[in-house]
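Q: Could you fold this chain for me?
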Amino acid sequence: MLGLAGLLPFAAASSSGPWDLSQLMQRVGELYQPDHRGRIRLAQWEALMDEYASLDVDQQLDAVNRFFNERLRFEHDLAIWNQSDYWASPMQSLVAGAADCEDFTIAKYFTLRQLGIDETRLRLTYVKATEQDQAHMVLAYYASPTSTPLILDNLIDPILTATQRDDLVPVYSFNARGLWLGSASFDSRAATTTPLPRWQELTRKMSDEGFFGPRSP
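A: Sure. Below is the predicted structure, expressed as structure tokens.
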């Protein structure tokens, strides 16, 4: 898990705009050569985004949370990538069929962005999971800037509010717009524009995969 040390100037690619999914699928085949099960997961992911693109936000949140929780097994980075701390792209997680908490959260964040949810409503949030006594990452969805967020978590399928998740203590959160420091509340106002180095590495990798290249109309 990363701490707050070593933050770099903000240079992350924007995640706005629809992806060209056919080009993405072609590119992932070239880069990662997925096996049969990996291709099935990728096809199911594409079908999910087609099916839920026009549905309401609550349905999208529930579908995306359950999709990744059901299709990816939890593994530590050492077991998946032979690295102590590695942030995988959604494509990499689906090909591998495994993810740690950061990878679950990253996959859910970018999938919901593709479904049309504005990035200002979504924050990848580091917390302390008190029951496990360890650092953890979840995805927070804010219906409005002042609302209590809903929490998408790989530990449980139900989506609960932050106040219902008294087993999670927020530390900091971020998205493509910046980073918010927080200790007592998920709704911290202490915004900065210096993202984590791992986030910059992730967006560079996703750009190479074609996520931030030419968009479909």
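A (continued): The first helix runs from residue 21 to 32.
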